[in-house]
Amino acid sequence: MTSHPVAPKRPHLITQHGLTRTDEYFWLRDRENPEVVQYLQAENRYLDEMLKHTQPLQETLFEEMKSRLQEADSTVPEKNKGYYYYIRTEENKQYPIYCRKAGSLDAQEEILLDQNKLAEGSDFCSVGAFSVSPDGSKLAFSVDLEGAEVYTLYIKDLTDHSLYPEQIPHIFGSVYYRMGVEWANDSQTLYYILLDETHRARKLFRHRCGADPAEDALIFDETDDTFSLSMFKSRSERFIITYHHNTLAQEIRFISTDDPQAGLNVLRPREQGLEYYATHHDNFFYIITNENAPNCKLMRAPVSAPGGENWQEVIPHRSDTLIEHMDVFEKYIVLHERKNGLKMLRISSPDGRSKVRYVTFPDPTYEVYIEQNWDFQSDLLRLRYSSLITPNSTVDFHMDTGEWELLKEDRIPSGYDKTQYVTEYIHADTADGKRVPISLVYRKGLNRDGMNPALLYGYGAYGASSDASFNTSLLSIIDRGFIFAIGHVRGGSELGRAWYDEGRLLHKKNSFTDFNACAEHLIREGYTSSKKLGIIGGSAGGLLVGACMIMRPELYRVVICKVPFLDVVTSMSDPSIPLTTLEYDQWGNPEDRQAFDYMMSYSPYDNIQPVEYPHLLLTTGFNDPRVAYWEPAKFMARLRDMKKGDELVLMQTNFSAGHAGASGRYDFLKENVLDFAFLVDKLTME
Is 186 a catalytic residue? Predict the structure, then answer.
């Protein structure tokens, strides 16, 4: 058997609160050290060698996954100011093509941006901002070619498709959302946000097309290093709204889109513990707030005097319903609510009380989000809906009549019959009396005899809920007899704000015990067994599954940690690491002795024991700004040094990607292929 690479031990002493601990792999943090890169590359080669026997399986899995993609496809066009906008893909091309047609769907296509061309010569390409000017003549877009989530802004003249001379680097953007740039109504002025050296979105600037960026006006500098900054334009197009936020406080400011020279006006000054979000309708700002309302309530305030003393209640607090977000139209308020773990859409007149209706969904557990919906006057709400058995579906919900109009359901070219699959929404009981929801899917005819391989997913952090969306890649394991399940553990907001609060800071271990309870329930009910159970999570979810592995190694056979947060105390003790200061209210500040002791009690890197652990696969991106590559690398090295048994510990480093992994759709499939080949090999072939 090929021996694994060995990382040299180089003791590094860390003293906090009078306690000294040794971090023998601290040196792996030095990304400029050629020895570090050589070590990571050696680990990649070792992984390839140890999984060489799965290569035929990997090739089969890739062809299966690719065959389920509608390679040449298009989104349903959506109208905005006389143009129909859509995104399409072409066969054998990694990236989308952004297009529009003027006036009619029969008009000639205009390609606004071909991401395949942007990506030429690069192994990674992410488009962050994508914003067309109000008059339709310009496109502002941002591009990241390294995966570090540091974008460069470009402006394209859509009259001749030439680029303006200026390029603005280091702007805020996201691989997850189209954000970071907004236009004033003059179609000449745009706003953008610059990152600071810790990757925090900090400074808001105003830019005029064609001008030297060195002359751009600084509108706001977010000097509080526990806050981050983002912005959006109200659907009414009256205001650009800036959102200043940390874990426990938010503040809204606003600029008139008709007066580009104006400064920011504050809606209500920030207060620790006060969370609120606002957008515009008619003469009011509509506001979601937690003030004396843990699950939030809906308020409104006059635009002319929006201070807290003038807030008026529209929809009161409800103990069983969380208000997460809202979308405002001329005749409707759409509240994104959550009840019993499930997302709900509540539609009403702007008064919040009349013409109330809820959108109903056909599956017991599901995912739904709304599309751009540019038209402020529209009666249609464009939705994207899916479930563990229902492919992604584009729907126009008629807010006036309640009609559900299916415009498109994604086609699975290789064939798919949803009636051959079963999805359930069940619950696991915890030792402290909670009932944790579990979404699961499996092929019809499953025997609950404890012999089925299973994959349990979890996240449980930041109040982010893990909704049950369709994933064609999962069919490759489900069709091989797997059960796939999602544990909706504390730390998310599935069951309201208290569900989130009970899974962070000094209650973080609840996330781990909830997840273990989900695993125990699946085993007890005969869905699977500990010898057939794999778990997977990414980022904070990587912490979740890593901590559960450390706490209950006998409960699992396979663990997959993707870009995992495993070295909690050391990372949170270093404010120079991107995002650290923003997350003190999520994990705790190790400068506080109580927080330090609690984090030390669960940090996976600091709690490895000389016992047998499950097979482990770690994945990371060398350019990841959120969770650095060295966290899984250090964890792997220490685990190998301490553990007993012969179970595999492998790590793959993608040197061309960051936190979100590969950017191209085929390259992303290959990452799924690696995970699933590892699972299938260890859970069904050993």
Answer: no
